[in-house]
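Please decode residue identities from the backbone states below.
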């Protein structure tokens, strides 16, 4: 659980950096491509020195291609049809997908009892983030749910791989970013606005943080942490980023927060996390 909490903290700062400095200035597809390349470079020394079994390499690359590459393509494309508030609102269903994928993967029955913590986490996030959607949003909604499904599938799939010790996992994890970088490169080629390249030292410093720390270190620790908790805890943790991100955004930039909504939603998430700990 500690790994997931540390990554939640890292990502909560990253969302603020993106929103305050990169949004509208740097093309999002280019930003994602840069992040994936930097993350791949972080793990390149192990890739060059360590021989990974072909089957495991393909599995890791496939998971990376889906969990990050395809997820980012769908998520960023949804901004063409939705407001930022709507995108944030529609991402809250990820915990349900994590629980469903885990139960299906292990061929276990699906009941409201097992979905309970995830649904409670969704309710908590809904209370915090709810905004009335616009009338023309159905295609954007489908894109966001596709992104949620990709991210949830990747987390559950990584939990099922036979990867050995933590050291062996870190040595082979670069293949995850091989897949993610390949799909991100296709996204840049198809959708990027090359007039919005990173132009300042500040842009590049933030991209270095996002690539090496938030993406490289962050996704490695998140997937490693996903193997140390049960699926219900992992599902709930997917939404804990929402209150964490709002707190960081308020602390650094003094953006307004509805504290009644924030408090009620966060309390439900903490209750759902406590519930999830009792399930296996």
């Amino acid at each position: 659980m500690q790994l997931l909490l540390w990554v939640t903290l890292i990502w909560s700062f990253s969302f603020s950096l993106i929103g305050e400095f990169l949004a509208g200035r740097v093309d999002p597809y280019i930003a994602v491509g840069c992040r994936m390349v930097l993350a791949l470079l972080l793990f390149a020394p192990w890739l060059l020195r360590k021989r990974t079994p072909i089957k495991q390499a393909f599995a890791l690359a496939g998971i990376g291609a889906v969990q990050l590459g395809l997820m980012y393509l769908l998520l960023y494309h949804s901004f063409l049809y939705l407001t930022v508030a709507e995108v944030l609102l529609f991402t809250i269903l990820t915990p349900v997908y994590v629980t469903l994928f885990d139960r299906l993967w292990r061929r276990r029955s699906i009941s409201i009892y097992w979905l309970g913590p995830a649904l409670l986490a969704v309710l908590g996030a809904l209370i915090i983030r709810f905004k009335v959607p616009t009338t023309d949003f159905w295609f954007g909604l489908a894109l966001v749910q596709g992104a949620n499904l990709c991210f949830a599938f990747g987390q559950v799939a990584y939990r099922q791989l036979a990867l050995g010790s933590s050291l062996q996992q870190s040595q082979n994890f670069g293949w995850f970013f091989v897949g993610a970088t390949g799909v991100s490169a296709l996204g840049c080629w198809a959708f990027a606005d090359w007039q919005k390249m990173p132009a300042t030292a500040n842009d590049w410093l933030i991209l270095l943080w996002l690539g090496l720390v938030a993406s490289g270190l962050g996704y490695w620790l998140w997937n490693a942490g996903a193997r140390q908790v049960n699926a219900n805890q992992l599902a709930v943790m997917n939404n804990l980023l929402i209150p964490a991100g709002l707190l960081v955004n308020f602390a650094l930039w003094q953006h307004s927060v509805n504290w009644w909504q924030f408090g009620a939603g966060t309390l439900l998430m903490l209750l759902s996390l406590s519930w999830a700990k009792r399930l296996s």
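Observation: Residues 11 and 54 are 31 Å apart (CA to CA).
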